[in-house]
Amino acid sequence: MKKQALLLVVTLGTILLWGSLGQNSAASAQDSLRYSQAAQVYRAFGKEGVEMFQKKTGIPVEVFVSSSSSAVNRLMNGFADIASTTRQLYYRYNEYGYVEIPFCKDPLAVIVHADAAVTDLTIDQLEEVFSGSITTWRALGGADDPIMVVVPGKDTGANQNFRRQVMKHKEIVYDLMTYESTDVIDVVAKFPGAIAFISRGASITTEGVKALKIGGLSPGDPAYPLYQVFSYVTKGEPSGPVKAFVDFAFSPEAQGLFKERGMLPMTRTP
């Protein structure tokens, strides 16, 4: 069994993104927006998306990057006007007046180092790797090297989505856990024996990693079995700058960015 003892803590901290507003587009303080953004959303398209929104609307956005659960908690405690999440909102929150607005689907990619010989695994093989039953690449048709299992923190959307879709209630046995979900990408890029899971949109632009096929299907194939839904969460129906921000996610500019990063735009539902 692998020893679950190593915790990599990498804090992104508070990231302030103030757009260049131009001569005639200065917004008043009451028109600014506080946005708590899930780390996977940030790495997938969030920085570029916020910059595009600011340029289009002139509304300044203050961004805080964290896990999905922390992003939603910040909204609930009054530290944000809108949050993004990669995990479904608990049903009881709807009863408290919180609104969940899905805006795109993102494949949950299983990533390895770019030089790895293995290119395709089944769901059952994934379960065996991440439960500690398979510990060498040789058992999967690769080199006779140990597998280094890297996972996002337990409170992240990526971890919870993977456990729900792959692990069948088994615990994940890992060598290294990262605080921010997207830090797994940088670890895999540096260690040839590593394997992890994360948003395809977040990893697609990183050199040194590649996504495995699952059952012969690549992330982005219509029948690919693992995916996450990216959603915004607001307190009550969105209005003012919050509504403008939500509406932008369904604009041609934003949806073009989603497609560029390998994600699938969703249609706004009433």
Overall description:
- The structure is a single chain.
- The protein is α/β, with parallel strands linked by helices.
- The chain folds into two domains: 12-105 and 228-265, D-Maltodextrin-Binding Protein, domain 2 (3-Layer(aba) Sandwich), CATH 3.40.190; 107-214, Periplasmic binding protein-like II (D-Maltodextrin-Binding Protein, domain 2), CATH 3.40.190.
- The protein is 31% helix and 26% strand.
- The chain contains nine helices and 14 strands.
- The protein has helices spanning 39-57, 68-76, 91-95, 123-130, 157-167, 183-190, 200-203, 240-249, 252-260; strands spanning 7-8, 14-17, 33-38, 61-66, 82-85, 98-113, 120-121, 148-152, 176-178, 194-199, 209-211, 213-214, 227-235, 264-265.
- The strands form two sheets. Strands 1, 2, 3, 4, 5, 6, 8, 9, 10, 11, 13 and 14 form a twelve-stranded mixed beta sheet that branches.
- α1 (39-57) runs antiparallel to α9 (252-260).
- The longest helix is centred in the first third of the chain and has 19 residues, at 39-57.
- The protein is elongated and about 60 Å long.
- The termini are far apart.
- Mean pLDDT is 87; it is low at 1-30.
The number of strands is 14
Class per helix and strand makeup: alpha/beta
How many strands, what sense, and barrel or not for the largest sheet?
Answer: 12 strands, mixed
Instruction: Indicate the percent of residues in helices.
Output: 25-40%
Proportion of strand residues: 25-35%
Unreliable stretches: 1-30
Alpha carbon gyration radius:
19 Å
